[in-house]
Amino acid sequence: MFLVTGATGNVGSEVVRHLRRLDVPVRAFSRKGLPRTDGALPVPGDLNDPASVASALDGVRGIFLLPGYQRLPETLARCADAGVERVVLLSSSSVPGGERSNAVTRYMKESEEAVEASGLPWTFIRPCAFAANALQWKEQLAAGDVIRAPFAHVRQATLDPYDIGAVAALALTSPGHEGKAYTLSGPESLLPEERVEILGDVLGRKLTFVGQPDDEARAEMSAQMPAAYVDAFFRFYVDGTLDESKVLPTVEQLTGRSPRTFRTWASEHADAFA
Ligand SMILES: NC(=O)c1ccc[n+]([C@@H]2O[C@H](COP(=O)([O-])OP(=O)(O)OC[C@H]3O[C@@H](n4cnc5c(N)ncnc54)[C@H](OP(=O)(O)O)[C@@H]3O)[C@@H](O)[C@H]2O)c1
């Protein structure tokens, strides 16, 4: 039995999908307890509450864990008590060489450190920015054909959560991944404008990209997330402390096939923009 946290989200639903393809039993953990993927048992619970996670652990061999939740050391102690044999932690490509003074990097590092300190066998998955971040454009696409987005000059080799799910399922179910940290990227390095163009092509719409001035981006992001995280993203993408433009071989090395393109992600998720 495997427990997948964040199971209704972009990444967790793909972890569930890949595990179910391997025909292993899966519990799909989220607050609402509604799996997007068939064949997994939905389990409602709160990652900030170790007792809630513990109640889903009966018979669980491996857990896929999201980072950044409260009381993680206690949750991991409950995992150890329940006989969990593997933890696959979703982390971030900002961790290697990243500064603890950056709030996003810090919560990722602290999550990794808690997992290491737990004594449980672990694998860390450190993805770069997700292709699924384009879902942030849904509202603008519903209102018209113009996408305003921040960090116009920043190239990212965005990663399809499908590929994160594939690597996580491998790390949970096959040997040789213990104590490994995998930094993952997608297959091509694209500017936001290029992703908008591909998305428009897939949707059959002529979209126009407008790069947001930094002050407009900061004001918009500040309405959506704490100031420390806004600062963190500005340090990544304006100060240039994080380079997610490199195409890495990791997904292909682990899965035996190329990571999915942004075009494939957009085609698979075109309905989300309808
Ligand atoms: N976006 C990126 O580019 C990027 C890059 C590197 C790492 N990451 C990390 O990846 C994580 C997952 O991303 P995602 O796109 O898959 O997120 P997402 O689509 O927003 O999904 C979040 C999932 O977590 C569940 N959840 C939220 N709060 C919870 C709680 N307190 N207890 C239990 N379940 C909870 C949600 O379901 P319910 O609402 O039903 O609880 C949902 O299943 C991010 O949070 C971030 O830490 C993101």
From TrEMBL:
UniProt domain NAD(P)-binding: residue ranges: 6-133
Lineage top rank: taxon: Bacteria
SUPFAM superfamilies: NAD(P)-binding Rossmann-fold domains
Classification via Pfam families: NAD_binding_10
Name of the protein: NAD(P)H-binding protein
UniProt organism field: Streptomyces mesophilus
